[in-house]
Amino acid sequence: MKRGEYSFGAVNVMVSSPLGILSRRFRFSADKLVPVYPSYLQMRKYELLAIHHRLTEAGIKKIRRIGQNQEFELIKEYISGDDFRTVNWKATARKNRLMVNQFQDERSQQVYSLIDKGRVMQMPFNGMSLLDYAINASLVISNIAVKKSDKAGIITFQDRVSTVLPAGRTNNQMATIQEVLYNQKTAYLETDYSSLYSTVRRKISHRSLLLLFTNFESIYSLQRQLPYLINLAKQHLLVVIFFENTELTELTGQPASDLKAIYYKAVAERFSLEKKMIVKELQRYGIQSILTAPEKLTINTINKYLELKARNLI
Prior knowledge:
This protein has 314 residues and is an alpha/beta fold. It is built from 9 helices and 14 strands.
């Protein structure tokens, strides 16, 4: 039911002879630990849907590509559905049949998941913490980035930076990411964004897509960290991903029958408004953001990644 390390305890095996006359008990080590990885099944589900072109069933939007990358790949014969704007008229005249230019998507872009492990990420939703949701989403988006020929990397941090896995797309990159993510824990400390900023500046030299999984409950908590986010956004394409409080959202939709219920509803609406103000504040400084319910985190993160790819922002 949870990732990390699991101990089976003592394992006893009873072995008997074919006729059942003799039997013997074997006892195996009681201190054996095995790694329990993040949501591997979820990662495979999205991978299989992508292979069979059924991502829309999971809520992934079809994004229309704006413009076209100018990196030429080859000239091929026209088939139904090709864009007429890519017709190569010189090649068409030589071959005496319709030929079109084919361009390839820009590849080998760096995609980093920055995972906040601080106190704010320990809020529980449906039996999982926000940190668990962020780790599962990071595993899925890293796998999709590698499948799209981009490079995926991981950085985890709280009062200091805990893990830095450089972006890559080698054959064992996803296995390495799983090893990094499966046993991430929190010390329930306050997050230090200055440490994150200095690490990103030292370790990531090329412009990259930074997916920052964190949480802000008020506009004041954002403003304390805003200078570091603005500096990150100057050097990289930063997407701040934080969470709706779905329980408060449900509370705002319920009718208030007495004075106490009116007070609770007013407080809930105030917190919901704060979340929307955070989005507006980030937009004011040109920082991309995702405000999402925890259960929709993976879907919304994939949609944002595909949108940025379609707009040639990365």
